[in-house]
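Aim 2 progress. For Translation initiation factor IF-3, the working sequence is reproduced below.
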Amino acid sequence: MCGIQRKKKPRRWRAIGIKDDEPRVNREIRANEVLLIDDQNVKQGVVPTRQALQLAEERELDLVEVAPLAKPPVCRIMDYGKYRFQQQKRDKDARKKQKNQSVKEMKMRPKIDVHDYTFKVKAVCAFLEDGHRVKVSVFFRGREMAFLDRGREVLDRVRRDIEGFGKVEMEPRMEGSYMRMMIAPVLPTLPVKEPAKEPGGSSKSPAPKAAAPKAKPEPTSDDVSPQES
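Predicted structure tokens for this construct:
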């Protein structure tokens, strides 16, 4: 309006989606010289940042500052977009693994009926199949504290019934009014391959040869009975 144009500040290059806590890339690198590692993981030594940028551009890759606090800073030549994608995938897998390894709890009573027990054991097996650890807790109320053996019997039964789905990570122990046992999922085992069979159902391993029948001795005159006329 006054005829005075504001001088625009030079825009610092920043790829879309990159956060401020991520490493400096390309023209964002402020150091005058860097310790360069190329895309073949070969140390090129200390070089001017301009030279490192030129080398990255020639290879159509990015110059990434991986150790900014080093003197001089360490930079790598890499495909930064691909690197970020792989890093995000690793972080996602780590979060998923951590989520899958959360602890579930299944509560039971010392005098649990058959139907309730069957339902809860199936739920424990389902949790273990999904990769969760399961804390099985037997709750004692009032005078039931005098019969702790019943709680141990329930947990021993659970231990037997979840065989193949999980293994006991923490033996039964008392925690207040609860007797608790921790169960961890077991890793699936790879099936053992059977040896390939030949047509006809026989395996490739050679079958034991049957013993050859012994030749019968020719009859002698003494062995032949005279025919009646």
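Residues 80-100 form the longest helix (21 residues). This observation will guide construct design in the next reporting period.
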